[in-house]
Amino acid sequence: MTYRIAPSILSADFARLGEEVKNVIAAGSDWIHFDVMDNHYVPNLTFGPMICSALKPHAKTAAGVAVPIDVHLMISPVDALAASFAEAGADYISFHPDASGHVHRSIQAIKSKGVKAGLVFNPAEPLDVLDWVIEDIDLILIMSVNPGFGGQSFIDSALRKIEDVRKRITASGKDIRLEVDGGIKTDNIRRVADAGADTFVAGSAIFGKPDYKGVIDAMRVALQG
Ligand SMILES: O=C(CO)[C@@H](O)[C@H](O)COP(=O)(O)O
C-alpha cells in the first residue's frame, strides 16, 4: 500500500500560507489538502480558487516536483466553483453528493477538465451512491468528523465505513484512493490504515506543532508498524 499524508492548510497560519505550504512540503507531505467552505453547506468560510491559484507555484518540492493539490469542496452548488478550481490548478476535486443536484454530471464535469474527481461522505451519510458511480471516480473521502472545522475528535464509526469502502474499491478493481479526514493523529493513524485507508488528511495534528517534520515522520513510522 502506498500511503499518502495530506496536511490540511485549514489549520495553517493564513497570514503566511505560501510559506506554510513550502514548509509542510519540506517536512515531507505528499499532498496539500485544501478545504473550501462556503458558510452555506457548512457553517464556516475559508478560501476560493484565487488562493488556490496563488498557492499553486508553492506546491512543489525543493527539486521542483509538483505536489498535488487536493481540493475538498464543502460548498453547494458544486459545478461552477469546481470548474474554477480546475482552472486554478487543483489536481483532485472532491465534493459531497448531497451538495450536487446531479452527482454523475458533476463528476464528469470535473474529469472533463483533466482533474481527478472524488466523492466525500459525512459521518452519518450512507454510501449507496457508490453503487452507481464508483467506476467513474478517482478518490473516496470518508469524513471522520462533521465537516466545517478543524481540531475535532475522530468519530469511531468511520472505521466500519472505511472497511466497507475498501471492500467496494477491491470489488470494483479500480485504482481509487481511500482518504480519511478529521481527527487523524499519530496515535490513531495506524488503526485507520488497518481499516483500509491509504490517504490521511491531518490539520491540527501537523500545523498545531512547531515541528511539522517530526509529526509527519511519526505518522510514517506508525503506518509502518
Ligand atoms: O475538512 C475538514 C473539516 O471540515 C478537515 O480537513 C479538517 O480540517 C481536519 O482537521 P483536523 O481534524 O485534522 O484538525
Automatic annotation (TrEMBL):
Pathway-wise, it operates in: Carbohydrate degradation
- What CDD domains does its record include? RPE
In short, the EC number is: 5.1.3.1
Check the record and name the Pfam families matching this protein.
Answer: Ribul_P_3_epim
Task: Identify the catalytic residues.
Answer: D35 (proton acceptor), D181 (proton donor)
Give cofactor(s), names only: Mn(2+); a divalent metal cation; Fe(2+); Co(2+)
Cofactor binding note from Swiss-Prot or TrEMBL: Binds 1 divalent metal cation per subunit.
Does the record carry Isomerase as a key word? yes
Q: Keywords assigned by UniProt?
A: Carbohydrate metabolism, Isomerase, Metal-binding
> Which residues does the record give as a divalent metal cation binding sites?
H33, D35, H72, D181
The lineage's top-level taxon is Bacteria
Q: Which family does it belong to?
A: Belongs to the ribulose-phosphate 3-epimerase family.
- What is this protein called in UniProt? Ribulose-phosphate 3-epimerase
Q: Which organism is it from?
A: Rhodoferax saidenbachensis
Gene this protein is translated from? rpe
